[in-house]
Amino acid sequence: MAEEERESLADKPNQRPFLAAHQQMTKPEKSSTTGNGLDTQQQITYAAEVFQTNVTVRSLLESLAEGVVVVNAKSQIIFFNPRAQELFGYTAAEVKAKPLSVLLPERFVNLHASHTNTYFAHPRRRPMGDNRDLWGRRKNGEEFPIEVSLSYLDTEMGLFGVAYITDISAQRRREQDLKARNQELDAFAHMVAHDLKSSLALQIGLAELLQADYTSMSADQISESLSAIVSAGRKMDSIIEEMLLFASLRNQSVETGPVDSEPLLVSVTQRLQQEIKDKNARIELPQKFVWACGYAPWLEEVWFNYVSNAIKYGGESPVIRVGSEERGETVRFWVTDYGQGLREKDMQGLFEPFSRRHDDSLPGHGLGLSIVKRIITRLNGSVGVTSQPGEGSTFYFILPAVEHCAGVNSSGGNRSKDNSSDG
């Protein structure tokens, strides 16, 4: 049917019973007029007799998964099966004798008219698919991608074109999703391979140094090298853990409920004890957190990413403030650091997979913030950042409030209207 600078058409096995049944039908007496000179109403009447009177043909047309549209040589619709009515939103009565262009996006009408004339001059069966970009237009104006195969009937009342139409919206969405996943995986493989290789190279280099020269090295030098090996190993372990989490977020199904972030932050600070010690960081937590609708294991990873980034980018002896506040039907959580901050261009794409902050000398493998976005999106929330160069950054996420969490009693959990250290 609709064609984006070309046609897409197909011969299907399930067309054959329809054609055979038609050929076996009793034909009316030959009209004194033929071809394009025939009255459109005569052709509509004839089509009704051919396609609806015969029980076999009618049953087949009504059971087809494809929409079937039959047009005459003037491109007027003379038959419109039930599936076509579902696809386009018109009744058969609304489109009979109407030009085929009512089913096409406006931008394709002139081009399609030329294709139709060419087809009726040289009719033939044309296959579906063939990587053609075709679109239909519903009664409400909505456009949707389709695949079309064409056949024809040479009848007593002239030549009829038969289009078999399939809505491929779901298929197109799957293709787009697959393409996005493949692109993401390409970037994923490149970034992770680079970071794992860097950590592994450091471990191998230090191990070889120890193997060759440990007898001549001081105890402090040996201890420093071993600490670096352990640190590189932990980084590799962290990368692998985030890889697994990143991958699982696509399909893992979870049940959300009221979540208190306080125990999650306690766990996060314990996990980051070494980093906190190394940077002499101070993390200021509120007395209480506002409860929100979420999934605790995932939210712990969100807090871990935000707080660990604040430690990395918060400058010397960083002070990190964490807070929450209720905002109507949602709860906003944030982590604020007072480091060098971000320029506007540095914030673009910050939550996309494998992007890095502007200082590439600092650690990080480009997965953290994309994981945060994916988690919060899965929990029906949103993420963001506000920052000024030289004044630090505030990374936040927003979740539904407890009373708006599906299937959760609004009384569940201790809640405070504004529990914040900053924001």
Task: Describe the structure in your own words.
The protein is of the alpha+beta class. The chain has three domains: 13-167, PAS domain (Beta-Lactamase, 2-Layer Sandwich); 191-248; 250-423, Histidine kinase-like ATPase, C-terminal domain (Heat Shock Protein 90). The protein is 43% helix and 19% strand. Strands 7, 9, 10, 11, 12 and 13 form a six-stranded mixed beta sheet that branches. A five-stranded antiparallel beta sheet has the order 2-1-5-4-3. The protein has a two-stranded antiparallel ribbon with strand order 6-8. The chain is elongated and about 100 Å long. The protein starts with 15 loop residues before the first helix and ends with a strand. Residues 1-37, 356-365 and 407-422 have low confidence and may be disordered.
Structural class: alpha+beta
Q: Count the DSSP helices.
A: 13
Main pleated-sheet profile: 6 strands, mixed
Portion of residues in helices? 40-55%
CATH level 1 name of the largest domain: Alpha Beta
Write the SSE topology.
Blueprint: H1 16-23, H2 40-53, H3 55-63, E1 67-71, E2 77-80, H4 82-88, H5 92-95, H6 109-121, E3 134-137, E4 143-155, E5 158-167, H7 169-213, H8 219-248, E6 257-259, H9 261-271, H10 273-279, E7 282-284, E8 292-294, H11 296-313, E9 319-327, E10 330-337, H12 344-347, H13 368-378, E11 382-388, E12 392-400, E13 418-419
Parallel strand pairs: 7-9
Antiparallel strand pairs: 1-2, 1-5, 3-4, 4-5, 6-8, 9-10, 9-13, 10-12, 11-12
